[in-house]
Structure formats: structure tokens, C-alpha cells
Amino acid sequence: METRALPALHASHSGCWLREREATRLVGKGEAIVTAADTPLLMLNAPLVATRLGYPDLSGLDLLELFAFVHPARFMVPTPKGLAHALGLTEPDSDEAVPALLQQAASILLERCESPDWAEREGAWTGLQAMIRLRWPWATLLSARIANPGRAERWLFSRLPEWEEAAPRPQPAQINLPPEAIALRLAEITGALSETGAEPRIAQRDYAQSVGHIFAPRPSRDTPHMLLAEAGTGTGKTLGYLTPASLWAQASGGTVWVSTYTKALQRQLRREAARIWGPNPGPARVVVRKGRENYLCLLNLEDALQGGFQARAGIMAQLVARWAAYSADGDMIGGDLPGWLPTLFRNRGVAALTDRRGECVYAGCPHYRKCFIERAARASAEAELVIANHALVMVNAARGRDVAQRPTRIVFDEGHHIFEAADSTFAAELTGSEAIELRRWVIGPEKGSKGRRRGLSARLADVASYDEAGALAITQARAAAEALNGDGWLARVVEGEPSGPLEELFAAVRATVYARDESGGQEGGYGLETEAAGLDGPFIEAAQNAGQALGDLRRPLVKLGLRLEAILADPPDWLDGQGRARIEGARQSLGWRVDLIGAWEALLARVGGEAMDGPDFVDWLALERSDGREFDMGLHRHWLDPTRPFASTVLNGAHGVMLTSATLRDRSDAGDDWDTALARSGAAHLDSPTKTAAFDSPFDYANQAEVLIVNDVPRGDIPALAAAYGRLIEASGGGVLGLFTAIRRLRAVHGRIADRLARGGLPLYAQHVDPIDTGTLVDIFRDDPKASLLGTDALRDGVDVPGHSLRLVVMEQVPWPKPTILHRARRAAHPGGGQAHDDRIIRARLAQAFGRLIRTQGDKGHFVVLSSAFPSRLLSAFPPGTPVHRLSLDEALQRVSAGVSAWAEATPAATDD
Q1: Which of 422, 566, 641, 774 is most buried per CB count within 10 Å?
Q2: Are 105 and 87 in contact (CB under 8 A)?
Q3: Is 80 helix (H, G, I), strand (E, B) or coil?
């Protein structure tokens, strides 16, 4: 069929447009749904169209799926404008013009498959044959255009390159970096030495020279050089620390790790590193390293391709296989896999293609030599710069496979998040979802389950046949794991029929939480919690029984680990290099799970009153719910101060560490507070002194920004809140980032204003509403100056949208901390009192949110807080000199509108910070 004869549908909040027989008309949702049910329609992002129509079963010819097949591993903003730019077409000037664009785009993509210079041709014909069997809607149209190559195409798993083992890397040379050398390298990188180069930034130079301190030789064991450096937005801190890092790595032969909290900054770091190491530095120099769960597992993919996935999930697996053949690194979360691809498939099966369960068999895998995860690990051992995230650095330091490869020179960018990252990493959570994963790891597949999941006995079958003691330990562990909760556990607990000691414990948790609930149903649908104190006898008995069951499982796992060590120490004749690597991997996995069970036992012992942990921990019981549905429950333990294990595990083992951010210090009325920064960084637990340095932002906040505190929007009045957001977005002409502290209010506001704004040419997107991942939502927002975006905490920092696309930030209210049990404990422990603790959190959130507004010298905009009760003591969160006005909504609208009119011609500029 000629693609221009295919009807095309476009649905937005402003209406639905259907193009049939070369004519486009506005139709109602009902007609659009009926037409889509009868005829395969061209559309862009079918799940989003389905959401717009309120028809979840919508299907058709989705151009995003076709684009992912024709151009795997290629970036595209998934909007009509983004599609037009990706294919070199003229972007549509209205919603009515979109259906014609969809027809034109389909023709181009299909014709590209017939072109002799189609770069991604290899493997397409073979993949298409599988898609035909899966009844992919595009298969019929493609089959006539993709010719049989006449010879068997190489299968994905034979096409991927193999990684190679490298000799152990020698220790880095001990060197000092002269400040003059750092300044010279920075000038070379920024072009400040050329006649037409950029003006040198004194603050950036001083900042870079201060970073050189962390690369000096360490004076003694467990005394790292520690630097806390606050650099205001626009200082150029990324190049500021990459410059000395590159000097040291190249001169010493060592590796510098740069750690971030957000994936957005990781992408930015890769771009900035290209200015030093070149646009294609290769894995020997710059590596982006993430946790195992971020990478495609080739064994899981093979299982999916060979029948493990059916119907739509099978189509997704085929598209992922197309991507894997052209991916740079196999990173599925924030890498070159389009972020919108998983959201096209409602079951989100991408997670099943990664190693989220810790079941990797290492050298026992037939794809071990081609494994993306192993390639990244080996590349990072040889690299000069490794870009990672806070959690990975902490986990790698705590239980890394190779002690010699643990980071020793670390730059923690977004260092204000170290406390939160450590809080998550070093916590213990005995929940139903965690316990059932442990059961499955030990026992293997439950009755009737599908997939390649294998238990200990299958993964270590050769060890069991060779070593009698090891076989006995596996048998004992398998028997003990039967005491853990199994499939259907949640239904049994809810129905009051738990089976086994762990399910009985979770039933006791649920009953206790509901018994102590004082919300009166006000928080229906949201999680509930209660402190693990004053528990009755039956609960303590259930905890003791669960602890005994866990101990019965831990002991044979410890014995099995010892047997694996013995086999490695005195290897049998059949144990080759790959077998050794597999057993070493199994031993590491065992050690991790033995530690996990030990932490659970300690948690339960404290519940029973047997532990002597003192005030170092905070324990509570929680029931997790979402939209009225219970999905998990269990016991939680967090460190009161998680920087203690962070300091002992990460900092003490390093030689030089830097924490940097635009908001390290707490700016209160009493002045800038380094004490809080030192306490929340872990530096307070070091024996060595910590250096501090601060560098002000070069931006003229007095003339580039205004803070508007709107005092006449009643708190809790959703209609008034929605009206305020709608009028502000209209006054700004889009370009608004709206930040909410509650998903419920976000959805309510979006539902009230999205249609009206769209009819005015102002598209509105939202987290937790649109079926689009957060990274893609930001890409869409950045790409369209008329678009606005509503979101929660994930958008408060780590979002870099310079230029006119972001000219107004609106916060629905003062971002008060949620009054959880953990928050209450830390509030009580704060030396300055509870209010001081809360104020610090709020000021940090305000500062991070404000930091989204001004990203370059040319940016201008407003920061609005819709709060009639904004305490003056919190105003110090904003940069000095920033004008602050308390006014009505009408007055705020006038200022926003006037500012946009005056600044509409501002030239967008890229930021290097």
C-alpha cells in the first residue's frame, strides 16, 4: 500500500486530526477511536495518543517503532517537530499539519530501507522475518522494501566484538600538579590563549587550581586529601575539575572517577570530556560506567528472542536486538537506547532484559566474551576518566569484585546529594519484594514460571557433582529458602492466610501499621508507616521466627562460599580460566547475599530487643501502596547518619576526594554554613583535615532574575492552584517548569488546564501523566520554547535547559520536608533544633530549583512560589542580589508578561556548567 494512502491520526490536548484521502479534518474522540479500531492508522507515539483519546487499547502504525527499526541507536525527540528535524523535513506549523507530516515521514523511512546506502541494513531482513511472525503492524509494508540479502546474515551474537583481557595496570605514579600547569591546560582547553579565544574566567581558573589538591600524594593511610568546593552556576566547574583530572591521569597513568547523582549530568560530562580527550576518545580513555542493571544482558535477550517474549513483548525484544547491534555500550537506561522506546510497550519489558536479579553466571554465559557489562568493567580499569554515579561508586567500594580497581581519586559532582545516596546505599530493607527475589535466586523458577531463571543447584551443577560438601550446602540452602515468601505471597497476606515465617512476619507488619494508622483514611492510596517500637509479643515472636529462618539460610550459604574458596585454592583438572571466573563471580554473589541476610537478621534482632546498636539506626515498619493498591510491606533500617559508613567505606580507602556543587553550603540569615556541608559530606568522620573553597557565580542575578512570592492563592484550593498555573503559563507564552511536592496535585492541575493551553498553542507535558520517561520529557521541553513541563523532585535539579526554553519556574508551595519517621529522628538529632533542620532542607530545595532558571549569561526569567506563608528566613536560599517581591497573582502576571516581552529576543546559549 502507498503510504500516502494510509490514514494518519494526530491527537493533542487541543483536538484530534484525521487525514484520509489527502484531506485532513478535525474529528471527535469517538470517531477517532472507531476509525483506529477499524483501520491501521499512522500515528506518532501510540501510548501518548491512547492517553489523549482515553482509549488504552489503541494500536496502529507507530512511527516511533518504525524509526527505531530503521535507525536504531539514533537520537530523536519524539514529537512532530523532532520527527521533522530527524528526517530533514519542514516542521509542521499547526496540529492540523501533523497528519500530512506523518504520511511524508513514513514514506521517507520506508524508502530509506530500499536505499543502497542505508547504514543500518545488516540484520534488518532477518529481524523482519521474526517481526512478521509476531504480526508487527509495519512488517507487511517493510517486507516489500527490504530485499533478501541472498546469504545468511550474521546473527547479533556473532556480530558483537569481543573484549580482551589486559595485563594488570601498575599503580599510578605519585605526582603533584603545579598550579601553573593547571592554569595553562585550562587556557588551552577553553581557547583563552588564542587571539579570538574566550575571555579567561578567573573564578574557573582558581577553582581548577584548588582541585589540584586532591591529586597530591596521600600523607598516611586512611587520610585522604578532602576538598569541598562550592561553585556557583556558570563558574564552569565541569571543565574546572576535568582539567586537573586529565593532567593527573595522563601524567600518573591512573584513573579518575567522576561521580554524579543524575543521568543528565553524566551525558553533559561526556560532552565536556570530548573537549579534552577528543570527540571519540575510545574506551581506553573515557568510559561511562553504570550499575549492572542498566546494561542489556545478552543471555536474557537471547531467551526473549527464542520465544521467552511473545506478542508485543516479542516485538520490543526484536527492536532492542536491532539497537544492540549498533549501540556504543549497551546502556539501556540513559544511553543510546531511545528513552521513549520502552514506553511504547505497556509491560515495560526492558527491565527483564537487564541483570536486575543478580543471576549473572559470568564465564558460564555463552556470551561472556561479548558482554556489555564485562566490557564496561574492563574498560574502566584501563580508562583515564570513568564517569559513574554515586550509588555505583559506593557499592563498588563496599563489595567490588576487584579491590585493586576501586576508585582512589574521586570527584563527586552534585555533591549535595551524597547524604541521600549514602542513605539509600547503606540502608537495610526486609520487604516482601526483596525476600522473594532472594528465594528465587536460591531456588530458581517457581512452578509454571517462564524465563531462564536458574537456582543455585543449576548454576553450580559442576561444583555440586565434584564437591560433596558443596552439594550438601546447596541442598540445605534450597531447603531453607522455602521458608521465604513465594509466589502469591501478597494475596495470602492480605487475605490473612500467610504461609511460612516470612509471610507471617509481613502479615504482622501489615496488621501493626493499620492498627497504628492515625490518618483516618485521609492518605488512602499512599504508603503508611509506624515506628518499630512498643511492639507486642506476637509481633516479636514473628520477628524471632523469621530471624531464625534467615539464619538457617545464611549458614549453608556461608559454607558454600567456603567450599568455592577451597576449590579455587586447589583447583581440579577440569577448572579452566572461564570456570574459575564463573566460580569467582558466584562467590561474590554469595558474599553479597550473606551480608544482606546478616543485615536482615540484625534488624530483626533489634525488633526483639536483643541488639545493642544504640542510637545509630532508625527502624520502622512500612506498608507500600500506589493508587489504593498494596504492593509491598516490610521493615526498614537506616543509619541516623549515613555518612559514617560512607566515610569508612569510600573516603578512608581513597587518596583524594572532592565534593562539588553549586549548593553545598546552607545559606541562612546567620551566614554561609560550612559545618553542615562538612557533616553531610562525611568529612566530619575523617581524621585528616578538609579544605573548603567557594567561588561565586558570574551571573548578574539582580538583572537576570526575579523571585515572585504570590500571596493570594489559597493553600489546598486545587481550582485556584490550577488557574494560577494556567494564567502564568499563558503570560509566559510557555517555557514554564512547574514543580510539585505531590503527584496528586500535579495530576489535578494538569487535568484542569492542559486542554485549554493546547488550544492556545501552548503544549503542556507532565510526569506521572504522560506515558513518557523523564529524560525524554526534558528533551521535548528543551526542544520547544512554547512547551511547559510539570514534574516533581526528579526535575528540581539535574535538569539543564539553557536559553529561552525555560524562562519561568513555578513552585506550587514551600517544599516542606515530608514528616516521615526517619525525618523525625534526624530532626530531633539536629544540633540546631528541629526548625533549623527543616529550614536547611527547604533552602537547599529552593536553591536547586532556582538553579534551573539561569544557566547562561543570556538567560533571564522569573521564579514564582505560590505561597502566602513564605517565611522570610528562607529567602537566603536565593543568590545575593536577586530581587524578591511579595505580591498578588495579578501583579506577578504583569511582571512575567512584561519580562517575556522584553526578553523574547534573548539569544539561546549553551552552558558549560
Answers
A1: 422
A2: yes
A3: helix
> Phi then psi for 834, rounded to 5 degrees?
-65, -40
Full-model pTM: 0.91
Instruction: Tell how far CA 398 is from the center of its chain.
Output: 21
Angle between helices 390-399 and 577-607 in degrees, nearest 10? 100
The mean per-residue pLDDT over the stretch 580-589 comes to 79
Torsion of CA 844, 846, 848, 854, to 10 degrees: -140
Bridge partners of 710, per DSSP, are 866, 887
What was the pLDDT predicted at 262?
85
Degrees, nearest 5: CA angle 329-332-334: 95
Torsion of CA 900, 901, 903, 904, to 10 degrees: 90
Q: How far is CA 786 from CA 14, 255, 763, 805, 894, in A?
A: 14, 43, 7, 7, 19
Contact 349, 309 (CB under 8 A): yes
Quick: pLDDT tens for 129-161: 999 999 999 999 999 899 888 787 887 888 888
Q: How far apart are the first and last CA of the chain?
A: 50
| Residue 533: other Cβ atoms inside 10 A | 10
Other CB atoms within a 10 A radius of the CB of residue 685 amount to 17
Q: What is the pLDDT of residues 191-208, one digit of tens each?
A: 865 555 556 689 999 999
On whether the CB atoms of residues 701 and 854 are closer than 8 A, the answer is yes
C-alpha cell at position 692:
573548603
Any long-range contacts for 441-446 (C-beta under 8 Å, 24+ apart)?
441/357, 441/358, 441/359, 441/589, 441/593, 442/477, 442/478, 442/481, 442/553, 443/478, 443/481, 443/482, 446/486, 446/487
